[in-house]
Design brief:
The protein is mainly α. It contains six helices and no strands. Helix 3 packs antiparallel against helix 4 (50-61), helix 3 (33-47) runs parallel beside helix 5 (64-77) and helix 5 (64-77) packs antiparallel against helix 6.
Length: 97
């Protein structure tokens, strides 16, 4: 329950342009980072907040599901690099087989 409250607060902070505060708030959630960090990152991608989005890249990299999700948001924030992101993901998926 408490983590959902933190997540909602962080979402609102991200939406209203308080990205730094949103990162601090979401860091207060001590479990399920692989679910909550990408959710906040999605709001940064939606609002174009590249600086605070980047602050969540490394924490999300610790979880495979979060890392893949972040790639989609990277493509949204950096559309000129979307094909490069897709190429790397395709190569990684090819190695897993």
């Amino acid at each position: 329950m408490k983590k959902n409250a933190y997540k909602r607060i962080a979402q609102i902070q991200a939406i209203v342009g308080q990205g730094e505060e949103a990162v601090t708030t979401v860091e207060a959630i001590i479990s399920d980072h692989n679910k909550h960090l990408p959710d906040i990152a999605s709001w940064f991608a939606e609002t174009g907040d590249r600086v605070n989005f980047k602050r969540l890249l490394i924490p999300c990299a610790y979880y495979l599901d979060s890392a893949y999700e972040m790639c989609g948001y990277l493509a949204r924030l950096y559309p000129e690099q979307a094909s490069a992101v897709a190429k790397v993901l395709s190569e990684l998926n090819g190695k897993e087989r």
